[in-house]
Design brief:
One of its GO terms (molecular function) is glycosyltransferase activity. This is Cryptococcal mannosyltransferase 1-domain-containing protein. Pfam families: CAP59_mtransfer. The chain is an alpha/beta fold. The protein folds into 3 domains: about 35 residues; about 280 residues, Spore Coat Polysaccharide Biosynthesis Protein SpsA, Chain A, CATH 3.90.550; about 90 residues, no CATH class. It contains 13 helices and 20 strands. Strands 1, 2, 3, 6, 7, 8, 9, 10, 11 and 13 form a 10-stranded mixed β-sheet that branches. Helix 4 packs across helix 7. The longest helix has 26 residues. It is globular, with a radius of gyration of 27 Å. The termini are far apart.
């Protein structure tokens, strides 16, 4: 009997099963077809729809200029632009300066031309092994440089915030801001007198600044980011700042803490296309169009290139007596000042409100450029990809070929992941707004003038471990926090935790050791 041509009075047991369960036959017939379709998509995608795989022609030409085992110094710097490279290190085992990271930095200097580069490294609290590795590395640096090793940076140098129990603690972002600014200190003074400048500090007017994290990267990608991003027909790259994408898994980016889309929306999904359909969704549209200059309001991505004129001071003395002091660039929320160049890293000083120093840096760069009438802005270049391990870097060229398929995963997750809410996202510098702050024993609404970069804000707070100590061999030196309840504005905490309404009583009943850690949450891996 043909079970696909049943009469009206079937007697065969299998026929009756089909009548009472009509989907059975369809599922049996469609399952192989669906499987075949999925396999076909998986097979064809890397060949016909890979993501950010085929470099634009000018990228290919720049790489061709440096082909071969011994490229000509400066081969990736066609206009001989002057580049200031800055980085901060924590290198307890000496594996960064003494390993592949150091080799790649030296290779990048050769690609840019040693005569065109100034290298600034600031390293602290890394011990004797880290210091020895840095000293050995310095002997191999072929360009002008300033390499500083501080055996210890005390937290007593920093201003603190007060927790609800009266404890004084240091914000992690305050610490990072200061260290990054120390790496930029050779840009604080300018004389223009090369004949009297023995170490190269203060005599060169730079075109670009490249800030590097302790990342795994390809040296040529540093050149592509600097000179090829959003390049016009005249051969000049057009951006205020341009960032790489940094990856901690083959399909997942890392630094969403600093990343904001073209309208300042945060997004905490880490897979392609990275940006949700917020507002006009310009960032999302740029990613889907595979452009090399995705418009954003802020980024970092482990590697950021920027126009030096917004960062370098071109006067003999710093702009103010407090310019090189710890916390000297903080904007007082009660009495905000306008942002001016040269831009430096800063942090938000109040409790239970943080903003990534790199996000604020992007916001300030964009503002000073806008005030000069510059049309360019902050962009992400998804062709430029860095990682935090050699293994992940090797996987990235393969992973990006299937990356577009994660669009479905992203859309599915978006149904269940609420939007990242920041009630101050659209507030601009100088605008009057109401801000909810933790003061003394509770939350209060204050009317304030807007300060730049409020779109960077998060209702979280990261604290350094006491005296910055790192538990274990590679533990983190910071923790997230638990915060008191009672807010009235809708401002979700993503990495923190809201304490229960009984927290005061709970704290009173806790032991001394429990009270010390009462407001702390364990942090993830990293520094």
């Amino acid at each position: 009997m043909n079970h696909y041509q049943l009469d009206n009075d079937p007697t065969d047991e299998e026929s009756q099963n089909l009548l009472f369960h009509p989907t059975t036959s369809r599922s049996r017939s469609t399952t192989p077809a669906l499987t075949a379709a999925v396999l076909l998509v998986l097979t064809l995608t890397p060949f016909f729809a890979p993501s950010y795989t085929h470099l634009p022609p000018h990228y290919q030409q720049l790489a061709k200029n440096c082909a071969g085992p011994s490229p000509t110094p400066g081969c990736a710097n066609p206009h001989n632009e002057k580049v200031f490279i800055a980085t901060i290190l924590y290198d307890k085992h000496g594996t960064l300066a003494g390993g592949k990271w150091g080799e790649r930095v030296l290779a990048l200097i050769q690609l840019l031309g040693p005569e065109n580069v100034f290298l600034s490294i600031y390293e602290n609290d890394s011990g004797l092994v880290g210091q020895a590795a840095l000293n050995d590395f310095e002997q191999r640096v072929p360009c002008k440089h300033k390499i500083v090793f501080d055996s210890h940076v005390s937290l007593s140098e920093f201003s603190n915030i007060t927790l609800p129990d009266g404890t004084q603690r240091t914000k992690r972002v305050a610490w990072l801001s200061e260290l990054r600014n120390r790496a930029l200190r050779p840009l604080d003074r300018f004389t223009g007198e090369e004949e009297n400048d023995t170490d190269g500090i203060g005599s060169t007017k730079f075109d670009k600044v490249l800030f590097l994290n302790d990342i795994v990267f390809q040296p040529m990608d540093g050149a592509h980011l600097l000179f090829d991003t959003n390049r016009y027909a005249d051969g000049q790259a057009d951006y205020v700042a341009a960032c790489a994408l940094d990856w901690f898994r083959p399909f997942r980016i890392y630094d969403i803490y600093a990343l904001r889309d073209a309208e300042g929306f945060a997004n905490y999904q880490t897979v392609y296309p990275f940006f949700q359909r917020n507002g006009k969704a310009a960032s999302r549209a740029d990613i889907l169009a595979q452009t090399d200059a995705v418009r954003v309001r802020s980024c970092w991505g482990g590697m950021m290139a920027m126009q030096a004129r917004y960062v370098q001071n071109l006067d003999r003395l710093p702009p103010s007596p407090a310019f090189e002091t710890v916390g000297g660039h903080v904007v007082d929320p009660d009495r905000p000042r306008n942002i001016t160049a040269p831009v430096r890293f800063r942090h938000e000083p109040e409790a239970y409100y943080d903003a990534c120093e790199c996000c604020l840096f992007s916001a300030d760069l964009a503002l000073v450029a806008k005030n000069e009438g510059v049309q360019a802005g902050i962009v992400v270049n998804p062709y430029i990809r860095v990682a935090y391990s050699e293994k992940i870097l090797r996987w990235l060229p393969i992973a990006r070929r299937w990356e577009r398929l994660l669009f479905l995963t992203f859309e599915f997750q978006s149904w269940f992941m609420p939007a990242a809410e920041n009630p101050y996202r659209a507030v601009e510098q100088g605008e009057t707004f109401e801000e909810e702050v933790w003061e003394g024993g509770g939350w209060k609404i204050k009317k304030r003038a807007g300060r730049n970069g409020l779109f960077c804000g998060v209702r979280d707070m990261q604290l350094l471990q006491r005296e910055g100590k790192r538990p274990g061999e590679s533990g983190s030196n910071w923790v997230n926090t638990k915060m008191p309840p009672g807010q009235t504005l809708k401002f979700k905490s993503w990495w923190g935790e809201i304490l229960p309404g009984t927290w005061r009583n709970d704290w009173t009943k806790a032991s001394s050791a429990e009270q010390d850690a009462f407001f702390e949450l364990p942090s993830g891996p990293g520094a």
